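Section 3.1: Structural characterization of target chains.
Under the original work plan, the team committed to producing a structural model for every single-chain target entering the pipeline before any wet-lab resources were allocated. The record below documents one such target. The sequence was received from the expression subgroup and is listed exactly as submitted; it comprises 281 residues.
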Amino acid sequence: MHDPRLTPARPDLAASNLQGTIDAARFVAGEQFEVMDGIAPMRHEPFSGAALDTQALKGERFTVYDRNDDGWAWGQLSGDGYVGWLPDLALYRPGPAATHKVTALRTFAFPGPSIKLPPVDTLPMGARIAVVKFHESFAVTSEGHCIPKSHLAEIDAMETDFVAVAERFVGTPYLWGGKSSLGIDCSGLVQVALTASGTGCPRDSDMQAAGLGRALLDEEMKTLRRGDLIFWKGHVAIVRDAATIVHANAHHMATQIENTQDAIARIASAGSPVTSVRRLA
């Protein structure tokens, strides 16, 4: 059974590498583009009112298999493999390879080396940037934009504690499908934090429950460790210590630190018991 979230296939069209494994009216090779907007919405259907499935961040590569006349492109992100519709205006031909990434929760791209200029874009943590030179306190990108260099790190620099990354998002508004400090959901928080630490991570909580780490044995459940992941149906939280978790959740409409047992009891009372706890190492 092919997961439609990760399989670029529809009854009328599919990726050429799926030929022979899936039925479609025609198969296309696709064409790679780069996300140039700081944050681009990936929607389930090609219109601005459709459900937000996830977000693509600047510098991500996206293979386009189809376009419509209303300015939407259908394809697949290269990072986590998610399939959906992006605004065509957010996509450009791939530029130089990224040399740096944003490590601040968010930063601004200015049209010149001055913080007094009106920003041309807001860039989230994880945005990938091609830096061509440095000018005083700014990094100058291949587009000619200037970004505070204190908000960047080299592309291969990795955080050492993904939980600490997640904790930096405390207070961020909850947004279904969000992946930035402007709005984030539970699995987006896990993905952004693990990616910053160099660990590949699927997008949705069910994918994370199936693909990350190993399930704890019953006796291990009594001694949760920092970095363990607690899963419910449709939800995930990150263990901070023996007593607390950090998670983006719709109850608080924010990323919040919460007592673990209180959260488990609250969510269970709403009809959703814990389904698994997984340990990454």
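The mean pLDDT is 97.
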